[in-house]
Amino acid sequence: MSRIAYFGPVGTFTEQAARTFTTAQDELVAADTIPQALNAVRRGAADAACVPVENSVEGAVPATLDSLAVGEPLIGVAEALLPVHFSILTRDDVTEIRTVASHPHALAQVQQWLAENLPGARAVAAGSTAAAAVAVQAGEFDAAVTAPVAVEHYPLKVLATGVADVPDARTRFLLMRKPPVAVPEPTGADRTSLVAAAVNRTGALAELLTELATRGINLTRLDARPNKQNFGEYRFFIDFEGHAAEPRIADALAALRRRCDVRFLGSFARADGVPATIDPVARNEDFTEAAAWVAAVQRGETA
Ligand SMILES: O=C(O)C(=O)Cc1ccccc1
User: Fold this and answer.
1) Measuring from atom 12 of ligand 1, which residue has the nearest CA?
2) Residue ending a domain, choose from 181, 212, 230
3) What are the pLDDT digits (tens) for 102-111?
């Protein structure tokens, strides 16, 4: 049995994502914030944490990136991808909706719907979509933008379902564990994720990206977050296709490591199953063959 912490309370999208990682024996534990879910793993109160990392409309989830970049390192072992559309919940006694609360990512994804359907309502940020439902129950706000499952936990009136300004919106979630972890086996459709603290000088980011480009490695995400210490200095969150167990990826990781501080955030199967693009001159067998040739040269066996 494992204890899986997730960004809660019960009824968030993250809870739905966490369920995709668990069996009936596992215990799900709600945390009020993303750092709290990750810290539960760091201090051993949970075996893993499920957190949102990226949305197809709004991009990165800053709280997740910032909490993964500092503190005890955690390693991603799996990801989940959920379609994201929203329900609008209110109380029976509400006659006029003046405030609508939700997680900022949810509010951003229903802006147009709110402008058309509740033009007088003020949008208010809440800790999570489910925290907004709790606040509506408590009478703090008139309506909440929630995950479809929220109504099963919070007996509110459903004003609308299937709300989404962008119909095919999706959010990606990570399952993070504390090292040492069992790194999942490569599948051919993997993602590797890391944080690089590029030094602050001309071309530093271009050099990092060139290490990946020259090995034919396809990026799937690049985000920058301030390092919060020196104004203008950033950490780069780089995701790319491939797995650390592959020679071509291992070679790239070593090259990045030589250039700057790197924190490995995991290699795991892509939830969408998209196979890695492989450069015809940078296949794994090319790296293996080249390394074998160098070793033979070093032994004086070949030229
Ligand atoms: O607040 C939630 O339900 C979350 O899990 C975060 C979130 C918010 C909006 C879209 C996807 C995930």
Assistant:
1) 13
2) 181
3) 999 999 999 9
